[in-house]
Design brief:
Blueprint: E1 2-4, E2 7-10, E3 15-18, E4 21-23, H1 27-37, E5 43-45, H2 46-53, H3 62-75, E6 85-88, E7 92-95, E8 100-101, H4 131-145, E9 150-155, H5 162-176, E10 180-185, H6 197-208, H7 212-222, H8 224-229, H9 255-265, E11 271-276, H10 283-294, E12 301-307, H11 317-327, E13 332-335, H12 341-353, H13 366-374, H14 378-390, E14 394-399, E15 402-407, H15 420-431, H16 435-445, E16 450-452, H17 453-460, H18 464-477, E17 481-488, E18 494-500, H19 503-511, H20 515-532, H21 541-550, H22 554-570, H23 574-588, H24 593-609, H25 612-627
Helix pairs in contact: 1-3, 4-5, 6-7, 7-9, 10-11, 12-13, 12-14, 13-14, 15-19, 16-17, 16-19, 17-18, 17-20, 20-21, 21-22, 22-23, 23-24
Length: 628
């Protein structure tokens, strides 16, 4: 039984439940909902859904839209501010609600388990739109306090708010429940150098907390090797001098001893172990957590572990651990989805206005701009706001005796640039890749947020088939590149579409290339388009013009815009043709004087020959007469 909100998905009986009331669903809409629920928090492209549910059968993509309308109606979900199914325009869908397994015998949703009393979090905690996730953690903790150990994975991409959620949960426990909370941080690079690093950090905090003396006595009796590894005196003799910790082999720190000791510590008082960034944990730590989750002895014990699933390859032991525990119903997963626009608005208010969220209105268009640029990632939201303030695009000014935030220009002026902190974070992730992989991603950034492998191969002068295979492997390892579909070329071959999960990743990759390098690569993409569509250049002339213009090849860009305008006229699209020729005139301004005069003359001749100039004057006169 999969649980989300007040709903349950009974996969065995293929039934949707609202509480205990079944909601009838036809087989195919139910199959669509089941696929989304079984892959929460992840973008599910149109092609993936079609291939998964209609293999080897051609189905119009429009059918998915029909099913989504039916499902939203059954779930009482608003497409504008979704709680369950989020539409990702032109790409697919994402199930954004927290999905859990049934936690008791009568399949009651986790939200119905009464959580422990907890104070209302202050707005300064920076948590918005995560109430369901906090309720789920509280429900699991409530089960742990009854002696049933709990294991919860909090998952999501970098910056999505995993640490903020865990911080808020731990703050509730510390202030209202008297639980002991200790944390261990997995650090990239240390897993190969030091085994049990996050475990040792958490145990050090446990021995130093208010109940540390009791914990140390338990470790001295049940797991002396672990206590000695922390540099503590096993005898606990106050009169003895503290000796240097012995160099213990891995064999002497037995995982079973530690599991038993932790169960003893958690016999009377709840113990919460938090491990962050588990994707960087060493194998020994993962084996220990596996053993801790599988043991059956009663203990008021809860383990909360965060990790980025996009950075966990198929062969990674963490993926195997999570799948095995979920299959045995020994763990829960709380995936964090991007914030919707309403939640981004709340977060912007928290950052700019503090606790008094209604003291002043936000600048018009700011929330839409930040939501578009951040794509709902909380870390990106905050970084973008800080960037706008640092660049003085967003300033605080006095108005009518009060202070208010105001933009110094329109949002179009704010489009350029990636916040420095984010750029450094993204650069660090890109730097982990091989040189050829970085080069391929740079080529992809020249196309758009969505790109085809043939265009990358053209930009970099690579073999298309090899490029296709390389991106297929790359998308399995990178969370910011996702497969989105296929494009059929004029010669009948197919090329896969991929998308950047965040536009900011594309911008960083674009900016790290020199102007000369970008120009060469844009020219190659345009030339390959011309080869593909030889004799039918009008179909892609507008796209070719974009690449030539980006390359600074003004004569070729103008020629393509004129070709695209003629193609638009053939389709009776006169407004489009006029727009294309207007664009050509603007590009012509970049030419030298003699070339500009010739180009402008040719463009105006195109307008006159097609009577676009007359149509434009007639339209202007009609507009003036209407106003009069």
């Amino acid at each position: 039984m999969k649980l989300f909100g007040v709903f349950g998905l009974d996969t065995g009986n293929e039934c949707l439940l609202r509480g205990d009331v079944p909601i009838a669903r036809p087989p195919k809409p139910f199959a669509v909902l089941r696929y989304l629920v079984e892959h929460p928090g992840r973008l599910i492209t149109h092609d993936e859904l079609l291939e998964a549910l209609w293999p080897e059968t051609y189905v119009q993509p429009q059918v998915l839209r029909t099913y989504m309308l039916e499902l939203r109606k059954a779930l009482h979900d608003d497409a504008g501010q979704p709680q369950f199914i989020q539409t990702v325009p032109k790409r697919g869908y994402r199930f954004i609600a927290c999905v859990t397994e049934a936690v008791n015998g009568n399949n009651a949703p986790a939200a119905e388990v009464k959580p422990p009393a907890a104070p209302q979090l202050a707005p300064s905690a920076g948590i918005v739109n995560r109430h369901h996730e906090l309720d789920s953690l509280a429900a699991y903790f409530s089960l742990a306090t009854s002696g049933t150990r709990q294991f919860a994975f909090v998952t999501g991409e970098a910056g999505i708010g995993k640490t903020a959620l865990v911080d808020a949960f731990c703050a509730q426990l510390g202030s209202a429940c008297g639980a002991t909370v200790v944390r261990g941080q997995c650090v990239e690079g240390l897993s190969r150098k030091e085994q049990y690093y996050p475990v040792t950090e958490a145990l050090g905090q446990l021995c130093a907390c208010a109940d540390g003396e009791k914990a140390c006595r338990i470790f001295a009796r049940m797991a002396p090797g672990w206590l000695a590894a922390l540099g503590r005196d096993e005898g606990r003799d106050a009169g003895a001098t503290q000796a240097s910790p012995p160099q213990l082999s891995q064999r002497e720190r037995m995982p079973g001893d530690l599991c038993a000791a932790l169960e003893e510590v958690a016999a009377d008082k709840p113990l919460v172990l938090v491990f962050e960034d588990l994707q960087w944990a060493d194998d020994s730590t993962l084996h220990l957590l596996s053993a801790l989750a599988r043991r059956r002895a009663p203990a008021k014990l809860m383990v909360v572990a965060t990790f980025r699933p996009q950075q966990v390859a198929a062969e990674h032991p963490l993926r195997e651990l999570k799948q095995d525990l979920r299959m045995r119903r020994l763990c829960h997963e709380i995936p964090l989805a991007p914030l919707n626009r309403a939640a981004v608005r709340d977060l912007v208010k928290l950052e700019l206005l503090g606790r008094d969220l209604d003291q002043e209105p936000l600048p018009q268009g700011l929330v839409a701009f930040v939501h578009r640029r951040s794509e709902g990632n909380p870390l990106f939201v905050i970084a973008i706001l800080e960037h706008l303030m640092a660049q003085h695009y967003l300033t605080r000014e006095a108005a009518g005796g009060q202070w208010r935030w105001a933009p110094s220009g329109d949002t179009e002026e704010m489009e350029a640039g990636v916040p420095e902190d984010l750029a450094q974070m993204i650069e660090a992730e890109i730097a982990r890749l091989g040189e050829q992989e970085q080069r391929m991603l740079e080529g992809a950034s020249l196309v758009d947020i969505a790109f085809t492998t043939w265009a990358v191969a053209a930009a970099l002068e690579l073999d298309p088939a090899e490029t296709e295979e390389a991106f297929q492997e790359l998308a399995q390892r990178l969370y910011f590149v996702e497969r989105a579909g296929q494009d059929e070329l004029p010669d009948g071959t197919r090329s896969t579409f991929y998308v950047f999960a965040h536009g900011l990743y594309r911008e960083v990759l674009w900016q790290r290339q020199t102007e000369a390098k970008r120009a060469r690569r844009h020219n190659r993409i345009a030339e390959r388009l011309a080869q593909f569509f030889a004799g039918r250049e009008g179909n892609v002339a507008r796209e070719m013009a974009i690449h030539y213009e980006a390359a600074g090849n003004w004569p070729r860009a103008i020629a393509c815009l004129r070709t695209a305008a003629r193609h638009a006229l053939d389709r009776k699209a006169r407004a489009e043709a006029a727009e294309l020729l207007d664009r050509a005139l603007k590009v012509a301004d970049r030419l030298r004087d003699t070339e500009r005069q010739q180009a402008v003359g040719d463009i105006w001749k195109d307008r006159q020959d097609s009577h676009l100039d007359i149509a434009g004057r007639i339209e202007e006169e009609m507009l003036l007469s209407t106003k009069a």
